[in-house]
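Late entry, written up from scratch paper. The run itself happened at the end of the previous shift, but nothing got recorded in the book at the time, so transcribing now.
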Amino acid sequence: MKKITTLLLSSLVSASLLTAQDHHCGSHLYLQQLEKSNPGITDQVRSLSQKQHYKSRAGITYIPVVFHVVYNGSFQNINDDYLNAQIEQLNHCFLRTNSDTVNMRAVFQPIVGPAKIQFILDQIIRVPTVQQGFDAGGIDPFVYSDYVKSTANGGSSPIEPTKKLNIWVCDLKIDGSDGLIGYAYPPPGLPNWGGFGNTNPAIDGVVIDYLAVGGPAKQPLGFNLFGFRGKSLVHEVGHYLGLRHIWGDDGGACFGQFGFDDDGINDTPHQGDQSQFNCDKNINSCNEGANDKPDMVENYMDYSLESCQNSFTKGQVSLMEYVLENIRTTIKVPTSLIENDITSQIAIYPNPATNQINLSIGLPSYQQAHVTLSSVTGQLIHTHTLHGDMQYIIERNILPAGLYFIQLQIDNYTTISRKIILE
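Output as recorded:
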């Protein structure tokens, strides 16, 4: 049985082996390793999370995603259905249109909210490897697991990491065992970061175990054994965008106790330690006095069951949006490719296109959208009706290169028309 753990860049976690109910994140261990070559990075990650006055954005930011599926054997070579389901899961969770938000307790309802962040599948790269897993353990942690990010080392080198979110899907290990779910590179280039003023684009992005990838439309391979529902990657992308674990990775301390630290977000409740891979809504590990709240096991940045997680807080959302506005400023679809005014929530990308055309609709309340693709002579080539879907892909198939027109009519009152070039 494969036992899973996740390692996150902006949080501190142990890499112990997990039971079928556990899921850890390892970015903190990764952060510790980066600290050796970039002294001061840990303090700067904490400094980032302690900023409390963030700029709020009016429109949605669309992030292009490149999946690198690095596999040893056909079982690890998960098909496109898992990847598309994962993108859909990311979009629902960040925009907070996932159906399980109804499970959020009333005490937390005022502090949760949607992030104006959506994800578009840009490319899928498949690379067979002779590597028997990518191991994050050893004397130099993460040196060998980062081989997955290098074609020369049996992995797949990143694609435009300053412009796209690269996500590597592979068999992760730690010290020879299957005990790692994923890890993420922290936001680079923050003010006062000293020696860590710039990122290393060769390793920037997120790594995730192949068993954890998917969503409701195609549940991960680890759904039955480990309860994966595609939210491990939501957690890891949260780290990529600057979030820390909700309990602050301080080993169990509460406010006023020795070693206390928290996640630096004002509206997340103090939490003594990680949840124990359960959904215990009765636990209150830190008493904050007036306005005290229980542990927020529904938060994506905890270690609760994925079936329990359903939201980010508004403070966490503000930090992620701050990172996109001020640090990862080029990780987005160019604004010239996104429509204006009411349709600023719509992205049609890429243009020019090679293999497929992606449509992303960030309108949680729309009922129906009619999509048509026509040739320059007016011939109708493709038509489809969406019913609340947030992501749609038009495959090129055998269409010749040239100019095409795509039209999107939403709820019979908003029509978007765009020219698309197929190369």
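Confidence is low (pLDDT under 50) at residues 1-23, 50-55, 190-197.
(Scratch paper discarded after transcription.)
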